[in-house]
Structures are given as C-alpha cells and as structure tokens.
Specification:
- This protein has 394 residues and is α+β, with helices and mostly antiparallel strands.
- 36% of the residues lie in helices and 20% in strands.
- It is built from twelve helices and 18 strands.
- It starts with 7 loop residues before the first strand and ends with a helix.
Length: 394
Amino acid sequence: MADLKHPRLFIRSYLSFEECKELEFIHKSSSTVGYRPNVFSTTISHLIATNSSHLIMPLIPIRERLKDKLEEFFGCEYELFVEFTGLISWCKGASIGWHSDNNRPYLRQRDFAAVCYLNSCGRDFNGGFFHFQDGEPTTVMPMAGDVLMYTADNRNIHSVDEITDGERLTLTLWFSRDASHDEDVKLISLFSNNLLHSSVPDSCIPLPASNNMYWFSQDQASDELLGFNICWARLHVLGYDVYLAQDNNCDSDASLLLIEPLRLARGTELLDHEFVNILHALQVVHFYCWKASALQSFKVRVGTSKIVELSKSQAEKVSDLKSLLLKDTELAETIFYSLTCRENELHCFDWTNFVAAIAAWEDYAWKLRKEIRSSLAYWRAHQSLYNVQSDKRL
C-alpha cells in the first residue's frame, strides 16, 4: 500500500549486476566536474558532444523500464517526460542537507525522481545514506541495483549523509508532466547536429572537452595552480602513468595536452601502443576494469603492441606531465582512491589481457555505434529516445 502522504517506492535489485558495472564504466571513463562540491557527472548531452553518443545505448532500455514502473506505481501512465538523465558520483566530502528536488524556481517542472544505485555502501564507499524527513522507508542504505522513486515536491524532503570514503555512483532521472521540458527533443536535435557536422562521423574515438570541464580543485574553482585533471587522476589511482612523446613544459596548454596522442605506463613498463587522446586511453582502462575476467579468452588482434622499459628520459617526461596535470596528488587520491582501487591493485595485472581490452573495447563501441545509427531515424520520427526493436531496423 502506497503512503499517500509521502508517495515513494523502493525496489531492491531492480538493475542487474552487469547493468550496474556497464554504467559504472561509462561514467568513470566520461565524467566531468559536477554541480556540487566533490560531485562528478556524465550527462547524455556531454556524451554526444564528446563523440561518445553510442554510450547512451545501454541507458535507453533502463530509462524506459524506470519510466514505465514509475508511471504504473504513481498512476500517471503516458503523462510523463524524462526531464534529465545523468550518471552522478559523490566522492569523499560530498553531502546535501534537507531539501525537495523542486525547491528552486528553475526546478519547478520536476514532478518525480528515480535514483538507481550502481555500487554498494560498505564495499565501494562509506557514508552516503539517503534519509527521508518523514514516512517510510526513513533511511536507505545504497546497494548496487536498488532503485528509489519518489515525488519531487515537499512530501518527500530528504538528505544524503557525507561520503567518508570512496565514490558513490547513481543513475539519476527526473520526470516532468511539462512537455516543454522533454529532454529527448533537445537531445535528438543535438544528435542530428553532431552527426551532420562531425569531423569524425564514423569514429568511436572520444574527443575531450575543454580542460575546465575536467579540472577539479577543493574550492571548485578552475584555478590550475591547485587541484588536478580528473582524467589523469582516474588513471593515476588505478596505477597508470601517461607518456607523451612530445616535449612539455609548465606553459603547456592543458586542453591541448588532453587531445595529444599518448602511451600508458605502469611502474617502469611502457605499453608501446598509441592512444589517440586521454579519453581514448581512459575508456580502454575502465573497459579493462569492467571486463578483465572475460578478456583471457578474447582473440587479440593488436599483435604489434609490446612492453618496453621506460628510459630515464621517458620517466622524466612522465613525472613532468604528472606535475602539470596532478598538482595535488594527495587530493586526487583522497577523492578517487577507494576499496575498488585497492582490489584492482591486488589482482594480478596482465598486459596481455590489457591489450585484448583495446580490441574488445573497439568491438563494443562499434556495435553500439551501429545500433545508434540504425535507431536515429525512428527517434527523429517520434521525437523520443527509445529501444528500437531489431525487427524494425531490418
């Protein structure tokens, strides 16, 4: 029986483990600085803008399921539009006090919220409990796969405890009855413009945005004298260093460095394989984290890659680059270093499996790219992002 005074729904294990891990991969390889201190976000519009629009494909069926379930439970079938979809992570120090989700004039259009937890308290992070001011459940302990739905008004005032360690990941959606705030119409327009004007229309290689979208400092300022680039930081906490062949100096433009070809190193070993840019390397690294156990049987096609020892001059370049883009290494480790990273350190790293991940990532990306291209005509016709059945696309 629904609580009419505080309408909400809590569902355990609504998303599968594999769905959670895939969304984690997408977020950690694409995220930018978020809307609150120590918060990072990945929006669909950002994925489109950075030539990673194919990565929305795993989100589409989940959005549909959530919308259908929410409309069914709250008795508003065919009334709602998705107002916002985002992958959001809260890191150490992030919290929010009592509020409703429509408590600002620019948020009045929000009628419902759905929060999908992608990792688990006590395993991947500590803290971050979700509390309602009134009604049941009073407190939700985030666990991977669980979903919480509630009205966005003052019937469901809530807060989130401070994260004390690790990174708390969610897929968060807001829904509106106001068609003028339909996210899909705006996104389809972005898709069309992006595909028409893209300089790399048939490429799955991501293109980094400007450095200020990736630069984090404790006071959320874009001051590059403090803080760190989050792409470099995510690689660092997983044990990787970045090597650029060209010379760098303290006057280098960080935005230009993000788009330079690079190679990856671990300790004194350098993988002799060139990545197009930092996001390309980051996506492969997090794909490897996601799929490591399955890569042993993958047929490796990158036969020319080899492992070489870092020379003294190369090691110096790695160190110089780290000092340029990781001004505050301790802060980077405080924000991103978690139990998951510790597990990654403990498992036996294998360059052969990592090279397999390069080829497997490419197969994965091309498959999604093909799906999005075959779905786009239907999305344009209906002005809605939805899971186009394969028989329609034939």
